[in-house]
Specification:
The structure holds 2 protein chains of 2 kinds. Chain A is α+β, with helices and mostly antiparallel strands. Helices cover about 25% and strands about 30% of the residues of chain A. In chain A, the strands form 10 sheets. Chain A has a 4-stranded antiparallel beta sheet with strand order 4-1-8-7. Chain A has a 4-stranded antiparallel beta sheet with strand order 3-2-5-6, with no helix packed on it. The chains are: A alpha+beta, B mainly alpha.
């Protein structure tokens, strides 16, 4: 009996009228945890009941504490008939289970009903008394911290990064159980919400156990997803990176994660098998179809284009015995692990040594019913298969690890595409082992090598390349070989030298597919996949060239399967890395050279393309210093520009058929126009309009080349659904529609956020789904951050130095100060505890403004501002405490769609409600922001004829407490008056 | 290709002031888009009409969702669904409750009933204000009226507390509620030249001096209803005209009080008898509801009285208006014969 959960129901407000006769409500509350239920008294005839209940105490195992959500149901008492439910609140008490996080959950929670949405609020206080449990064989994993953030959290230090943890649990989906036919939609939705809540609790606990086994104490980059497989069940799966974290007592925590690999590390030894940039595999056995082998030889002789290969090449040949040893160490450290994968996208200094390129694998599966929920082996096996493939691809690239790793699925009826991707990399072994680590960090910092190009250097052997590729000596250090283009799924290392600014680059693609059943369908999809992959890759390459850039970061390729089509959407942030060579232009060649007017047309196009490149270079301020060829040295033998995708088309065997994407032996980057398709492609290249002036966009954490962020941020979600007219469904029309959809969506965002100029959309995350035959749904979540234009050109270097300086001048007391503040303010603010202070801090309008502009009648607002951002940081502020993970799943359904403002009104309200519930939970934990926020799922279904719609949303993030840097500085100069100031702040807020 | 669904939800709800105005003014989405196109906003941003259409629809939807909360402004402050900065909350409320001068002149003093609501079409035609906007304004009046109708305490304070309006706007609403409650006739041709401000000023003084609340702050409904007793007492003022001595005394007291404070002092002094008679005539007949409603028309009507010095010109100088504005402290108590 290692834990006691205590719950107190304080009050309610804004309850809905449940009794038409009196226009009032007789409300009471049921508090349920596990199988125990408590009830409050009925508070008669009020819309703002004051229950002020006793403490309800649940004595429970910590296993249950981790799995079960606290369930609070508000009901209307009815003497003669059944009590009517007003709504529910689910509270995840996990944050209370680790010592450093929140100690109490207390605040106003929206009362949520899956049919009516938010109906009033309830004030609840929750506490947990944990008893120490020395049982070694325990099933719980209390104390393991979870972070969604895909970098080492800001106020921690990574002692050891252990590596990949994964788990999945399966169950039957309540929506598809027989009982669903007789129960109400509300009951069914609630059963689903509860089940998923339980499953994610269980999943988290199991992952925690694995972490403890590895002797870690935290999971970073925790990504949990749901697969709604329909008839065949419900899968909740999660991946993450196990770490041992140390809470930083000194503010050195705010050192930006920078990569300064040591000299010896970047000279990678010859041990590595050679390989190359973007490998993509595609594993498409049909799970149940043993007979039909789908091995096709995709020696695609696609005639339209050639593009430069992404590197491959040299390694330092002078690698001494010491380095070899180091290498061995790394490998042995990693080989102990089944999968040397890391879900992180940004790394501690010195961690990342070399980057090979993107590795990805896909597999098409047919879903069948999960017969035994306790044995999720089939799904496990599927993923294991894919991970194996990723691992082997990384090996082929001369890398022993995969970073920026992620997994996703796309499901349509009974077909499911599993995808995994990451960036093959060589890592510094010292972070991966016990013992050696302590000295490592400091050593790295001391060394503080100026080299910023190490990660670009190829990890593979140029002499042993299985295919020719274009390599040059690094433009930065002139010693090592670099590829001419680099694709990665990680964030841009903060110390990388970038010329100019970056920009969002998207490749969009649709392919029609015949409607088919089961195996035939899966076969059709597997046949299409390689072509899609190839084209997406081509588009990315062309667009990158057109922007005059040479590297992609944060690459995310999403393939979505629908009834009659496949959609591919790749997003990445293009940058110009100073270490890589200047990209060549794009040349257009016609197929019929005799035709005069055609020639003219071609040359016109060529001119347009050249103009665009020039314009883009100017727009993104790309003006690399001129370097003469001699200095760089002649290119490596076989300077043919080629690229290839490696692909495995296998069932059970590991048979790999390679797809050579480097059609022919042509030297230049040539676009050949030989048919209308090719013409379309070129046209589509030119239709992408750059964002209006003052706007930038990227899908990484921060925009390369901009670092002067102000504190004004605005996170948003935008959803669009278009209906295709079924008449003109050709690939071209489809492509155009999809392209227009995405472009218009971006334009709308720019327009809507114009008041924030100069501004950058960061972490732009597009998700495509195909809810029905002719519907395409695109969901975008991003954050707009205003930056200071005048200082925007400041170099990264000075920025880093500045923060270093600041870090060293700050001291421990500074960090603790805000916490004192919070506790000081508690007595006078019993309801939203610890929020009074944060109200002001969180105001995006700067402190002075806030006070001046607020009109007297409204100043007594009790709702504190909670910031939300998909980034791992808050500009202009320091995160002082992580309060725990937020992981919420909601279902909303309506049977009066028209009355709720149609589909737009319905979904708009629902998303606003989801935001509200996230904010309320964060505030109740005592936080004032959510970082690394992500909307993982937004499944929307409508049936306008029946006036019905349903939507499922899954969001997650890290609840944090942050303090404005400006406030911290004030404090540091007025340290002795700190207490006085805290009371002042409080006073001002409450007036 | 048609957009089935198109939404934008920010963590902080963005309020575009221009859009809010268009929405409040009752423009349909299409009209609002047309107006915005003309404003040249597209050229500034290099955008398209489709973007504008989508933006407008989206903003309108947001306003529509906020409207429910604006009906009870304290709810807007405490709700959790929309995160809005306090300054923006104040703006939302203030603008929502703002009204058009032309509109308020049409309904001032009318019963805020369904009947009047039916006439809004005509008012919309006359004033050129969209019907939608007229409805919003009318509903605001009615809502405020309903809420404060039965309340104790100062009218302005009650309005401010329940609707979080600025001081000035709360005063205006107090006047509107007061007029609606007492059904003062303000629509007659003779009164057309009077502005809402003129009436609001009179209302304020009447609330301060003529209502039950002015006498005894413990009374119910104090600031809405006129003090019947006081109106009865006004009958005694006949003496001021009938009794020569009292007339002279009254004249000298008024002249002393107004000396140097009135632009038309000499005219007033010359016509004091006529003026006084006119006023007293109005005052002594305030016993029936019908006469009370007619107060303003009758106060302005007697040409002989007000030709020289019409009521509104007096109004901007508060204080020394003598008998009209309360129990004049300097007036000898009415003889109780």
């Amino acid at each position: 009996m290692p834990g006691k959960l205590k719950v107190k129901i304080v009050a309610g407000r804004h309850l809905p009228v449940m009794d038409r006769a009196s226009d009032l409500t007789d409300a009471f509350v049921e508090v349920k945890f596990g199988n125990t239920t408590f009830k409050t008294d009925v508070y008669l005839k009020s819309l703002n009941p004051q229950w002020n209940s006793e403490w309800f105490k649940f004595e429970v195992d910590d296993e249950d504490l981790q799995d079960e959500p606290l369930q609070i149901t508000v009901l209307d008492h009815d003497t003669y008939s059944a009590n009517d439910a007003i709504g529910k609140v689910y509270i995840d008490i996990d944050p209370l289970l680790y010592s450093e996080a929140a100690t109490v959950i207390s605040g106003w929670f929206p009362i949520y009903d899956t049919i009516h949405g938010i109906r009033g609020e309830i004030n609840v206080v929750v506490k947990v008394d944990l008893f120490n449990d020395l049982n070694r064989f325990r099933q719980s994993s209390c104390g393991v911290k979870f972070f969604c953030t895909t970098s080492i959290p800001k106020c921690y230090r990574a002692v050891i990064i252990h590596g990949f943890v994964e788990e999945l649990v399966v169950n039957e989906d309540p929506e598809y159980q027989w009982i669903d036919r007789i129960r109400t939609p509300r009951a069914s939705n609630e059963a689903r919400q509860r089940l998923i809540s339980l499953m994610s609790g269980e999943l988290q606990r199991k992952i925690g156990l694995k972490v403890l086994e590895m002797r870690g104490n935290a999971v970073v980059g925790y990504l949990q997803c749901f697969d709604l497989e329909g008839e065949s069940g419900l899968v909740v799966r999660a991946i993450g990176t196990a770490c041992t974290l140390d809470k930083l007592s000194s503010p050195a925590a705010f050192l930006p994660a920078c990569n300064s690999p040591s000299k010896e590390m970047k000279e990678s030894p010859l041990v590595h098998p050679p390989s190359h940039g973007c490998r993509s595999t595609h594993n498409s056995p049909i799970h149940t179809a043993t007979g039909s082998r789908l091995t096709q030889n995709f020696s695609v002789s696609v005639p339209t284009l050639i593009y430069t290969g992404m590197g491959s090449g040299s390694a330092g040949k002078e690698g001494g015995p010491f380095k070899a040893l180091l290498r061995q160490q790394t490998q042995s450290a990693l080989e102990q692990r089944e999968f040397p994968f890391f879900t992180l996208t940004a790394f501690p200094p010195g961690f990342l040594v070399h980057v090979g390129g993107v590795v990805s694998a896909r597999s098409v599966k047919l879903l069948d019913r999960i017969h035994n929920p306790d044995e999720p082996e089939t799904r496990d096996a599927w993923w294991a298969e894919i991970r194996q493939e990723i691992k082997s691809h990384a090996k082929a690239l001369g890398c022993h690890a995969v970073v920026g790793y992620s997994e996703s699925t796309s499901i349509c009826e009974e077909v499911c595409i599993l995808s995994a991707s990451g960036t093959a990399a060589v890592l510094n072994p010292r972070f991966l082992q016990d013992g050696t680590v302590e000295g490592c960090l400091e050593q790295r910092l001391e060394e503080n090598l100026p080299t910023r190009c190490g990660f670009c250097h190829i990890p593979y052997d140029e002499l042993n390349m299985p295919f020719p590729a274009h390599l040059t000596y690094c433009y930065n250090c002139r010693k090592q070989k670099v590829p001419d283009v680099l694709f990665t799924t990680i964030d841009l290392p903060t110390d990388a030298t970038v010329i100019g600014k970056g920009c969002l680059i998207q490749a969009r693609l649709c392919r029609l597919k015949k409607k088919a059943q089961a195996e035939a369908n899966a076969t059709a999809i597997s046949n299409l996949l390689p072509f899609m992959e190839y084209e997406v890759h081509t588009q990315l390459m062309n667009k990158l060239k057109l922007k005059g850039m040479n590297a992609l970061f944060g690459l995310r390729i999403q393939i979505t399967v629908g009834e009659n089509m496949l959609m591919g959407l790749a997003s990445a942030t293009g940058v110009y890395l100073a270490a890589l060579p200047t990209p060549g232009g794009i040349q257009i060649a016609g197929k019929t050279p005799n035709d005069g007017s055609y020639e003219q047309h071609i040359s016109h196009m060529q001119k347009k393309i050249n103009d665009t490149i020039a314009k883009n270079k100017e727009l993104y301020e790309i003006n690399p210093p001129e370097i003469s060829e001699e200095i760089i040295g002649s290119p490596i033998p076989e300077p043919r520009q080629r690229s290839r995708l490696l692909r495995s088309q296998s069932e059970s065997s590991d048979e790999v058929t390679e797809l050579d994407l480097s059609h022919g032996k042509k030297d230049a980057f040539v676009l050949e126009i030989d048919d209308t398709d090719a013409m379309e492609d070129v046209h589509s290249l030119l239709t992408d309009v750059p964002p209006p002036s003052g706007f930038y966009s990227c899908n990484t954490e921060i925009m390369p080349g901009i670092n002067n962020w102000t504190s004004e941020i605005q996170m948003f979600t935008s959803v669009r659904v278009i209906r295709l007219s079924s008449l003109n469904l050709t690939n071209q029309a489809l492509n155009k529609n999809f392209n227009d959809l995405c472009e218009n969506l971006l334009k709308s965002l720019y327009f809507k956020l114009r008041s924030m100029i100069p501004c950058c959309l960061c972490h732009v995350n597009f998700t495509v789904s195909l809810p029905e035959d002719e519907l395409i749904q695109v969901t975008v979540t991003a954050v707009a951050i205003t930056f200071d234009k005048n200082q925007a050109l400041q170099t990264t270097k000075t920025h880093v130095e500045k923060s270093l300086q600041r870090a060293s001048t700050d001291n421990e007391e500074l960090l603790q100060f805000p916490l004192e503040l919070c506790s000081d303010s508690l007595p006078s603010h019993p309801l939203p505890p610890a929020k009074a202070v944060t109200v002001e801090k969180a105001s995006p309008v700067g402190d002075g403004n806030f006070r001046n502009r607020s009109a007297p009648p409204c100043a007594n607002s009790t709702v504190g501002v909670v910031k939300m951002t998909p980034l791992s940081f808050i500009p202009g502020a320091k995160i002082t405490k992580y309060l725990g993970i937020i992981n919420m799943f909601f279902i909303r359904e309506t049977t009066s769609l028209r009355e709720e403002g149609g589909v737009s009104g319905f979904l708009h309200a629902f998303i606003a409600e989801v935001f509200a519930m996230v904010r309320a939970h964060v505030a109740a934990l005592g936080g004032n922001a959510v970082v690394s926020y992500i909307m993982k799922q937004c499944v929307f279904m409508e049936n306008p004829n029946k006036n019905q719609a349903q939507c499922l949303i899954n969001v997650s993030g890290d609840a944090v407490v942050f303090v404005r840097e400006s406030d911290l500085e004030v404090v540091s100069t007025q340290q002795p008056t700190a207490n006085c100031q805290s009371s002042c702040t409080e006073g001002e807020v409450t007036t | 290709m048609t957009s089935e669904l198109d939404i934008f939800v920010g963590n902080t709800t963005l309020i575009d002031e221009d859009m809010y105005r268009l929405w409040l003014d009752g423009y349909l989405v299409t009209n609002a888009v047309a107006l915005r196109v003309r404003s040249g906003i597209l050229e500034q941003m290099g955008s398209t009409a489709a973007v504008l259409q989508s933006d407008t629809m989206d903003r309108y939807r947001t306003f529509h969702m906020l409207e429910r909360l604006l009906h009870a402004p304290p709810k807007l402050l405490h709700q959790l669904i929309f995160q809005i900065l306090p300054s923006r909350q104040a703006l939302l409320i203030e603008r929502y409750y703002a009204f058009d001068e032309a509109f308020v002149r049409e309904v001032l003093g009318k019963k805020l009933s369904k009947g009047t609501k039916k006439d809004l079409d005509d008012i919309s035609t006359i004033t050129g204000i969209t019907l939608k906007s007229c409805r919003r304004q009318f509903d605001n009046f009615k809502r405020v009226f309903k809420v404060v109708e039965e309340m104790r305490g100062s009218l302005v304070d009650n309005i401010q507390q329940h609707f979080l309006l600025s001081d000035q706007l709360a005063r205006d609403y107090a006047a509107i509620v007061f007029f609606a409650n007492n059904r003062f006739e303000t629509g007659k041709k003779k009164l057309q030249y009077l502005s809402f401000g003129d009436f609001a000023f009179s209302a304020e003084l009447m609330i301060q001096n003529w209502t039950l609340g002015a006498v005894d702050s413990q009374m119910d409904d104090m600031h809405m209803d006129l003090d019947k007793e006081f109106l009865q007492d006004l009958k005694e003022l006949k003496l001021l005209v009938a009794d020569k001595d009292l007339l002279d005394l009254h004249k000298s007291l008024v002249c002393t009080a107004l000396w140097g404070k009135l632009g038309v002092f000499s005219e007033m002094k010359a016509n004091f008898k006529n003026l006084s008679r006119g006023l007293v005539n109005v005052a002594t007949k305030l016993t029936h509801n019908k006469d009370v409603r007619d107060l303003f028309r009758r106060a302005v009507l007697p040409k002989s009285v007000f030709s020289v010095c019409p009521l509104p010109r007096w109004l901007p100088t508060p204080g020394p208006l003598g008998p009209l504005h309360g129990h004049p402290p300097w007036l000898p108590p009415a003889p109780l014969s």
